[in-house]
Write a structure and sequence with these properties.
Blueprint: H1 2-20, E1 26-29, E2 35-40, E3 46-53, H2 61-64, H3 71-80, H4 92-98, E4 102-107, E5 112-119, H5 123-135, H6 141-160, H7 167-175, H8 189-194, H9 197-207, E6 213-219, H10 223-234, E7 257-263, E8 270-276, H11 283-296, H12 302-310, E9 314-322, E10 329-336, H13 342-358, H14 363-380, H15 384-398, H16 403-413, H17 416-426, E11 432-439
Parallel strand pairs: 2-6, 7-11
Antiparallel strand pairs: 1-2, 3-5, 3-6, 4-5, 8-10, 8-11, 9-10
Helix pairs in contact: 3-6, 5-10, 11-17, 13-17, 14-16
Amino acid sequence: MKKNLLSLALLMFVGYLSTAQEVEFEEFDLDNGLHVILHQDNSAPIISAGFMVDAGGKDLGGNNNPERTGFAHFYEHLLASGPTKNIEKGTWRKIRAARGGNGNATTSLDRTFYYQTFPSNNLELALWMDSERLLHPIVDQDAVDTQNEVVKEEKRLRYDNSAYGQILFAINENLFTKHPYKNKNIGEMEHLDAATLKEFQDYFKKWYVPSNMVYVLAGDFDTDEAKKMIKEYFSAIPKGDKPVRNFPKESPITKTRKAKFYDSNIQLPAIVAAYRTPPQIERDNYVLTMISSYLSAGKSSVLYKKMVDQQKQALAVQAVNLSQVDGGIYALFALPLGDVTLKNLLAEMDEEIVKLQTELISERDYQKLQNQFENQFVNSNSSIQGIASSLVTNYLLYGDTNLINTQIDIYRSITREDIQSVAKKYLNPNQRVEIEYLPKNDSND
């Protein structure tokens, strides 16, 4: 009876999630091609507004010059804080803070996202500020020089002088040999230094066109009023042509690749096993995300419990599925404890991968995974900013805005057999790069 009651409660909970979390939204296009998504929620006096550009670290400057990396990240800094024709240098954040707002911008290899949150009585201010940086950005030599120094300082702090800060660089440059995913998202500093002012200006003209962006507004507003303001502030952006990409295809990895990478900021070595994964819109990618949670999400996960808690072989262990538009990365990572070798750490992780490939996970572990993803789904839509981010990401990178409501159904549909099948398909030693991430000293300079 007790078991039946628990099962009934779980069914009711899942039923509640499938209805109560429905996110309503409206979409329309301006005449210049800018796609707009609106989500009205008048439950709290707050709005979140922003735009995502279909341009990231994989998109090079200088007419696709391989020695012009980092342009997307450069523009993240430039447009996140001005200046513009009507907003003086150094005042962007002051204007926003004075009206109770906050904001930020982020860049991945696939996209650049700018967002701001304000009390809802500042709707027009938010729209005007966003239109300013798209219509009237100041991209002169002073702005370029200023942001170059900002980017260099970020690279020094986050990557060059941070322990294990370059581990994703090591993975990308060894896993990808043709596709620009092999490049650093932050770019090479000598590339930015060598770029001309015209190259920076041309990059903006090429990628920051309405047909290559999507605007999102979520929160407390009147829909008719918001539409009117959006048309007023963004219709003047020149239409332009949507850029066309033609990236080279990677050859499949059919034999284990081995590499070494040296980091002067570490004392302990690490082992990484990295695999290529399918484009993020494919169902198999969702299964890989579930596998990574099974292996290393929390202290009760398989790898943590085995290698850190029980066997005390590792200081840390992690499995990560990094989704990307053109194909992503699945990586296993571990730090040794004591005299444990990197070879032994890799063997222990491989043992759990083989179990996934040859045995079905237990029903209990499967239900635990489902509960984790139900919880993540709820949390991702628990704030206006979270909803805005999900809407714009789903439209631009997945081609389906309504994934904000249906993505959880994909995870619910994944079976134990799917987990076994996908592990067999993608996570084999002959399909990976094994990277020894090692301390750098005089002997290996």
